[in-house]
Amino acid sequence: MNQQHERFLERLEGSRHAMFVVAERLHAKGCTVTIPAIRKAPTAAQAAQFSDYADLLVIWADRPDLERFEVKHNCRNNFTSVADWPYPHIFVTSADSDARAGDSVEAYYVVSLDYRHACVIPGSTRPSWYPFLYLNPNTGNEEVAMCCPRELVQFVALP
Fold it and tell me: How many domains is the chain partitioned into structurally?
């Protein structure tokens, strides 16, 4: 297994707690929340066979449809609001992931380093997203991320 894939698996494992914190918040709001199992690819070449459909599957008490939520953990910074958001852009997801997901994601949560706050990006804001080319510090590769304008996101405290 190469080092880049090992680091990816470490970040994936580190994101588990963020998923459970967001699930607890949604459950406290009256939702039924399913957290699909994380399946880890043994090699980077096999990653596509192990990708998941969603981080959280949610049913609201007043809406019978199953909704898809994605959760990311910001493993570098704490934040509480747009005023102390540590980046010039609000990254939602990679352009590749966005192309695969389309309009199927209800919301994206970006959880702070200390798990106390989250930036919530509603899927309904997708028409306003814009691509941004950046050097991914995790991989060292140039990648395209989809970003959301700051005025369209919400910041929430987590349990």
Answer: 1
